[in-house]
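Researcher: First entry.
Model:
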Amino acid sequence: MGLGLSVLIAMKATAWMLLYLFFSRFGFTVLAIPLLYASLISWLVSIASHPSIDLPMLLGKNPDGTFPILSTIMFSPYLYFARAFSMARRFLTGEEPYSQICEGLYVGGWPASPRLLPPGNPAIIDCTSEFPRIKLFKGHSYLCVPTWDTRAPQPGQIESAVKWACRKRARNQPVYVHCAYVSKLKRLLDPGSIGLTRWSSLVFYSLLI
């Protein structure tokens, strides 16, 4: 993604603000307050996702993949937009939910339902900060590495995730690494890949060595 998350969210924040000003100009200030709130939240996410700050914990995602009620309410303009966009994008592009790299290793996008998971009761490495763990996946081994879209985790997170994945593969359990969209992880063998794709490559190469 050339522009990066922070720039794209800043553009969305600007659009919300312009809509708020437009409706306010015609006397619909009160009705337009949700637009103002969506703009302010988008600006906050844009700042927190900037590479110089990189604060995915802002959204409050728990280690078990759930979101506190307060975080869900506060960041609802961003969280629900991201989820709706993900499902719409998958529907419109028709892309496969995941790809198999080799036996027992899969990469893909956010699994919004069980049918989007690879077979074999895979262990899940969740590299998203904005998508929840679906309740139906409670029986799956799970590791949350909250990361902004187009960004990479910290070296310590990478190391612990690789060790976790290696333990699962040693037991012959499949491993599914996912970010927001499968198309990004399909580029993991591209030397020019950045952010989450580069991190995913480290996982796969470590498992294959």
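Researcher: Second entry.
Model:
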Amino acid sequence: MQLSLSAAAKEVGRSKSTLSRAIKDGRLSATLREDGSYEIDPAELYRVFPPPVPYPVASNTTQPDIDPTGTLRMQLEMMERERDRERGQMQTTIDDLRTRLDRAESRIAGLLPAPPVRQRRWRLWGRN
């Protein structure tokens, strides 16, 4: 069963000009009838333009009443637990880095020579 240009446009939820442009660009193949209209194979049409997915109709009887504040509380608790976990990890990392820095500084201090002791020279008042 071949589709006309307008029927094909309705099938995929696009405009006739979009389909016509796709035919002229070579993305969509169609046969030209003697009267100048196009015949489009449905398989070819769905290859280029997938059919629209129907959205499920929401029914009040199938979904239970959801308390939005309860959902928000659960999300808040989950985010607080995540925050506390991440803070704990960061504090552990900070403590580890401080320990490493202290060890590195003590090793560097052990490698440096002791500063020379300056001898004081006594001067007499007013004389060199």
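Model: Note on the second entry: The radius of gyration is 40 Å.
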